[in-house]
Amino acid sequence: MSDPARRGFKQYNALMMTRRAVTALTGTLAALLLSCGGNGPQFASSQFANRCAAPRAGQDVQGSLTDEKTWLRMWTDELYLWYREVPNLDPAAYDTTLKYFADLKTTAKTPSGNDKDRFHFTIPTAQWLSLSGSGVEVGYGSSGPCSCPPGSATCA
Q: What pTM did the predictor assign?
């Protein structure tokens, strides 16, 4: 191996060792930081969770329409896939949380002209609980029985 090639190889090895060290340090710091929380991730929106203008007995605490809208916006910013594309709306301009929520989504279109977010909807809690507890599962793709030999992960 020529001197320039050997020097390049040494530089590459040094770079890879540095990357491994940084990765190990980052992983250690992340584990340390995550261990400090105790109960998993805490979102800012949680301080407004279940504060409702019309609280459900035993589930919510008295809140206001402003609390509900604040929670919706914070929750959207924390968990919505396209949160960067949500317009900056004035919550005071909406007289209900349903109307506000309906507009708290991306307005972007796909190349074919369809809404980018086709899954933004609301459903009454009682109906959701009925559907989610009915034992019926809705999904996409396919599934079925699989007789795969041990160690095999190929099923269709």
A: 0.58
